[in-house]
Amino acid sequence: MAMRAVTTNPGTGIPPIWREALWPADWLSLRMSSVYRGRGVPRGDGGAVVLIPGFLCSDAIMYEMYSWLGRVGYKPYLSNIGLNINCPNASAIKVGETVARAQAETGRRVRVVGHSLGGLVGRRVALDRPELVSQLVYLGSPIRGVHAHPAVVATAAMLAGARSMVGQGACLSSACTCRISNDIDQALEDHIQHAAIYTRGDGV
After folding, report:
1. What's the pLDDT at 171?
2. Is the full-model pTM beyond 0.85?
3. Cβ atoms 178, 88 nearer than 8 A
4. How would you class 146 by CB atoms within 10 Å of its CB: exposed for 0-12, middle for 13-18, buried for 19 or more?
5. Distance of CA 49 to the CA centre of its chain
6. Sign of dihedral through CA atoms 177, 179, 181, 185?
């Protein structure tokens, strides 16, 4: 496949966020893909896969992957965290409960797939409960030099301030004491495979 140049906002080096509005075209392209229909895809081993949505998203955004994983032979689970706007540590506790249930039901360690902030939540789970996790996959997560678009950062700061005013904590603000920002520097257990998937043209 030919590589293409990535268009960025002049003077910023940041891909324009408006391009994210083109997601319906990506969705249609996905539906037309033979991979989406499971053709040529190795069958899964029946193992559990827990899916975690990104910032400002709910489990609904993971339904396509949830259905696909089931079709190709895995046992998928949604995170059960609701809208992903809470403290990542609190979300990690809920996801940890889902991972523990998935491990108990399948009798095997669990694969965890996290989108954007969900990848960091998944990493927190893998660090806290390594005996439950076999693999961690990040989808466009802000790790290793990948930075969120300024508009996304501003939205997070605004929500953090609002949550602080109503007594729900300010884990996304500069006063955050949440451990999630330190997790990137902590090594995962050797048995946990991990990979990061992203595109340089991601506007978020």
Report:
1. 53
2. no
3. yes
4. middle
5. 13
6. positive
